[in-house]
Amino acid sequence: MDLSKLDARLDALDADGYLIDADSTDADQYYLSGFDAPDPFLTLYDGSTHLLFVRSLEFGRAKRESRAASVERFTDYGYDDRLEADGRREAAHRTRAAFLDAYDVEAVAVPPRFPLQTADGLRKQGIEVVADAEQTVTAVRASKTDEEIDHVRAAQRANEAAMAAAEDLLGQAEIDGDRLLVDGEVLTSERLKEEIEVTLLRRGCALDETIVACGADAADPHDRGSGPLRPHEPIIIDIFPQDKTTKYHGDMTRTFCVGEPDEQVREWYDLTERAYREALAAVEPGATGADVHDAACDVYEDAGLPTLRDDPGTETGFIHSTGHGVGLDVHELPSVGPDGGELEPGHVITIEPGLYDPAVGGVRIEDLIVVTDDGYENLTDYPVSLVVE
Amino acid sequence: MDLSKLDARLDALDADGYLIDADSTDADQYYLSGFDAPDPFLTLYDGSTHLLFVRSLEFGRAKRESRAASVERFTDYGYDDRLEADGRREAAHRTRAAFLDAYDVEAVAVPPRFPLQTADGLRKQGIEVVADAEQTVTAVRASKTDEEIDHVRAAQRANEAAMAAAEDLLGQAEIDGDRLLVDGEVLTSERLKEEIEVTLLRRGCALDETIVACGADAADPHDRGSGPLRPHEPIIIDIFPQDKTTKYHGDMTRTFCVGEPDEQVREWYDLTERAYREALAAVEPGATGADVHDAACDVYEDAGLPTLRDDPGTETGFIHSTGHGVGLDVHELPSVGPDGGELEPGHVITIEPGLYDPAVGGVRIEDLIVVTDDGYENLTDYPVSLVVE
After folding, report:
1. Which end of chain A is more exposed for a tag (fewer CB within 10 A), N or C?
2. What does the alpha-carbon distance between residue B327 and residue A155 come to, in Å, rounded to a whole number?
3. The dihedral of CA A214, A217, A218, A223: what is its sign?
C-alpha cells in the first residue's frame, strides 16, 4: 500500500491528517483502516493510522485484525464524563476533537462524502475540515498491487463459472412460441439469476445484484430484468460478484440470443463488438480514459448512432461511459469516460460499450482488464458470441 | 407513508425542504424517493418529491418507477453550459442550487451523514444547509405500515427456513473428537453459511453476511465466524436476510450446541433466555427502548455478570444493546438500548440479549417483533433451544 500520494495531498492542502467517518462498506475506510466493521468508526491517517470507536463492541477485534498503529474508544477520550453536561451529540464532537488533539491534528482533509454533522461538529471545536475534491484515497486505490490484481482475477474466475452456468441454461432452452422452456418450465430472468448466484455463492462470492435483462428491460442499462426471457431477442447478462474474503470484485457482461436475432440486433452486436475491440486497442499507459471512451464513441457515431458525447440529452444509443475502475468497489476510479485521466499500469478497468433503445432492446459486451507497462492484460477468459448454440 | 413528522421538523428548523444526496443503498433515499439506483442522486422533499440526476442513464426508469412528482437532470438546469467556464465541481454546485431555486428553496435540512462537499458547495451558493440531528426521515421509517410489516414478516419466513436448514445440518453431524462430521466431512462455519445462503437465495433473499461463530469467534458479536465447528461448544447463528424485491429485512439469532454444553454455557444460556423473556415482557407502547434494555441488563447484573450499563469499558458480559429497529436497514431506529426513546405501535424491533467471553464463547437469542397497541406480536416462529437433538 503506497500512500505517498496521500502524504503529498495532505501537504498540498496544509492538513495534518486525513479523516474518515464511515463503516467498512465504504471502500476508502476499509482500505485505509484494514478493518471490517458494520458500524461507522473514525480513521485518522497522519503518517500512521489510528482508529476511534464509539463503543467497545469492535475494540478487541480491531486490535487483532486492523492494520492500525493504535485502536481507541470514545471512553478513552472522556466521552462518558461529558455525556451528562453536554448531551450525546455534543459529547461525541468534543470526544472526536480530543482524539485529534492527542495527535496534534488541527486541520483535516476528508473525503467529499464525509458526513456533514461530524464536519460541522469538528469545525465548532476549532478543527479545520476541508473536503478533498480529488478523493485521494479513492485515487490511491485505483492503482492495484499484484496481490490486489490476483484478488480481482480470482473473482473473475468465479464470474466466468457463473456466466458459463447461465449460458448453459440458455443452451438447454427450447423455443416455444414467444417463450423459452427448460424441462417444460418457462425460463425467466429470475431463474437464470438464481443459477448465477448459487454458482457464485458456492465459490465464496457475494453479489449485490445481477442483471439478466431482455427486450425493453435490457434497453435500460441499470434495469436488473424480470419475468420470462424471450427467443430471438438480445438478453444482457451482467455479473459483478464480490469475493467475500478479499472483498475485491469481478465484472463481466455478455449479450446472448436464443434463436435468430433480427438484422438490427445483429448489426448492433457487430458494432458493439467493434467498439469494444477499438476501445481495448486504445488502452495503454499514457492514454487517458477519455481517449479510450472516444475510441468507442467514434465507432458508434461513424455508424450514425447517438452517443452522450454527441448529444448529452439522448436516451437511446450509447448512453453511458465506456468503463470504470473495479476493485473494492465495483465502480471506482479511474474513469473510462469523458473525464477520464491518464491510465497507469496497475489500473483495473472495464471496457463495456453498449447500445440501447426500448424499440430494439440492449446489447453490451464487457471485459475486465488491467493496464500493464506496454498495454493491457485481459483478466477475462470468456468467448464473445451472440447466438447460443 | 405519513410524512407529517417531516413537515413539522422542516417547520421547526425553518427549512424550505429536506434534501438527500445518496444512492438508494441509503435507506432514507430509497424510502423518500421510491427509486432504486446504484449512483447518487438528489431528492428534494418540499411537500412533494423531486429527483435530480447527474446523468441521463436513470432518467427514463426514474420517470416510470419512482414516486416523485418530478424527475429532472443536470442538463435541464444548465450543467453542460456551465462546464467549460466553471469546471465540473463548481458547475455541479451551481446546477444543484439552480434546481433548489426553481422550487423556491433557500434553506434545506439534510441527514446527519449528508456529504460535506455537496453541503459546502450549496452554502457557497447561498443555500442554508443544516444537519438534521434528529434524522427525521430515519425516525419516520421506524413506524411501519401494515404493508411494511408484511414485508418484514415475509423476510422472517425465509429466515426461519434458513435457520431450520442450518439446524438440520447440525443435527446430522456426528461427533468425532473435537470435530463435527457430516457425510464424513468436517463441518465448518463456511459450510453452514453456504447452506443458509443458498436457502435464502432460493427464497428471493439477499444477504450481506451471516454469522456462524463458535468458541472465541462467538465471543465477538461481530465476528462472522470461520473454520471447523466444535462439539460441546455454543455455536451462534445470526441470520439477517433482505428480501430482494421489497428490500425489507428479517433478523434472528439462535445459539446451538451439538453434544453436551458445559455447566457454564448452560447457565449462560438459561440466563440469556431469561433476559430475552424479561425484555420481551417489558415491550409495550409507552415503554421506552431504554426500559426494555434495562430489563435485560437487570437479569445479567443480578446474576453478577458485567454489562455496558454497569461498566462502559467492559469487553466481556453483555456488551451490546438489547435490540434495534429493522426495516429497509437491518439496523435502524428505534434504539432498544440506553438511549432508546418511546416505543410506538408499528415499531419493528429485535430483542437479542447475549453474553460473551473469549474463555467461554458467546450465547445470544434474538427474535424480531412488532410493537402493537397493547404489547407486541412476535414475528418469529422458531423454537428457543440450545441442544441440537
Report:
1. C
2. 31
3. negative
**What letters, b where the CB count within 10 A reaches 16 and e where it falls short, cover B271-301?**
bbbbbbbbbbebbbbebbbbbbbbbbbbbbb
CB contacts under 8 A, B 110-139 vs A, are 110, 112-120, 129, 131, 133
Kindly give the interhelix angle for A146-172 and A189-201, rounded to the nearest 10 degrees. 140
CB-CB contact of B312 with B337 (8 Å): no
Chains A, B: CB contacts within 8 A come to: 120
A143-378: CATH topology = Creatine Amidinohydrolase (3.90.230)
Window 220-249 of B, Cβ < 8 Å to A: 220-223
C-alpha cell at B285: 407502547
pLDDT band at A207 (very low <50, low <70, confident <90, very high): confident
Which residues have a Cβ under 8 Å from the Cβ of B288 and sit 6 or more positions away?
B340, B341, B342, B343
CATH code for residues A4-141: 3.40.350.10
Checking ipTM against 0.90, whether it exceeds it is no
| B198 interfacial to chain A (CB closer than 8 Å) | yes
Q: At residue B64, what is the residue type?
A: R
pLDDT-derived band at B206 (thresholds 50, 70, 90) equals: confident
- How far is B204 from chain A, CA to nearest CA, in Å? 9
Average pLDDT of the segment spanning A71-98:
94
> Residue A104's pLDDT is what?
98
Find residue B350's DSSP bridge partners: B368
Q: Residues of A with CB below 8 A from B13's CB?
A: none
Residue B70 near chain A (CB below 8 Å): no
* CB spacing of A312 vs B116 below 8 angstroms: no
Q: Flag whether pLDDT at A325 surpasses 80.
A: yes
Query: Which chain A residues touch B38 with a CB distance below 8 Å?
Result: 208-209, 222, 331
Cβ of residue B194 closer than 8 Å to a chain A Cβ = yes
Distance CA B211, CA A36 (A): 14
For B97-162, give the DSSP string. HHHHHHTT--EEEE-TT-BHHHHHHHHHTT-EEEE-TT-HHHHHHHB--HHHHHHHHHHHHHHHHH
- The answer to whether the beta carbons of residues A44 and A50 sit under 8 Å apart is yes
pLDDT at B207 over 80: no
A65 touches chain B (CB under 8 A): no
Domain ranges of chain A: 4-141, 143-378
